[in-house]
């Protein structure tokens, strides 16, 4: 495939530049966040140092260590330059966690990220696959009883907050029926069976929260395909129903693929609330604990990686769409 037939250099430069600008704004806000909040974030770190040392540090010694670690004795612009150097190093350096001193904040967030990606990947693979087949099925049965029942039901499900749905599921399956664990990512040891058992409830919430949007997008796209001359010609030629369904799926899947990438920003937010509801050790639980503990380094690292993931997913949705759909091209854009 010739990429030049899909994009102009001007378009690629503009899209990538926009993404870089948004990323830099996030980096600046991350730097300003602990410095603009009421009080002095260094006081909380000072308390952590005293607790870790058993009270043997003097106030002056503790403050000197804080100044040295966070460069608070330097002008603000010097602090920002040092911050940029630390953030763009590998791995990024946001300093040690206040709550888990001296563990680096980045290590805490990065270790939690694997659980978030596991929950995100499995739930969306299932929800997207089910949404494709359910959407096509509803399109083939437009205005029939099943379509009239499921359409408003799916729209109603979109209005349910994921955390509320999580609480209901915990009450039913963990407290009342006692068939699945309500919290955590595994039992004593992270065996595959234990991880799977703890994954089922939070994964089910995310699937129920995202399945309606996937289904509705696929249904609308499949209806457009069914009303096209291509579909009428295929039906007139006596095409087998199974072959027709495959062709409908192939021609209606692209809008859902784009919607999947574009919804990743909402998905991260939704998954974070579900993680906290189930005490699942993902980034969402880490952010909630960091907010309560005022652990600014961990909060900065978590917001940084979240913003980066959202920016990359939005950029990927914009750039991948013309590659998977031969009808779309940005090569003619001025």
Automatic annotation (TrEMBL):
Transmembrane region(s): 12-33, 115-140, 152-179, 199-218, 248-272, 301-324
The entry's keywords: Cell membrane, Membrane, Transmembrane, Transmembrane helix, Transport
PANTHER family reported for this sequence: DIPEPTIDE TRANSPORT SYSTEM PERMEASE PROTEIN DPPB-RELATED (PTHR43163:SF6)
Cellular localisation: Cell membrane
Cited SUPFAM superfamilies: MetI-like (SSF161098)
A GO cellular-component term linked to this record: plasma membrane
Matches recorded under Pfam families: BPD_transp_1, BPD_transp_1_N
Main localization category: membrane
Topology with respect to the bilayer: Multi-pass membrane protein
GO biological process, one term: transmembrane transport
The name this protein goes by in its record: Peptide ABC transporter permease
Domain ABC transmembrane type-1: 113-317
Family of this protein: Belongs to the binding-protein-dependent transport system permease family.
InterPro entries: BPD_transp_1_N, MetI-like, MetI-like_sf
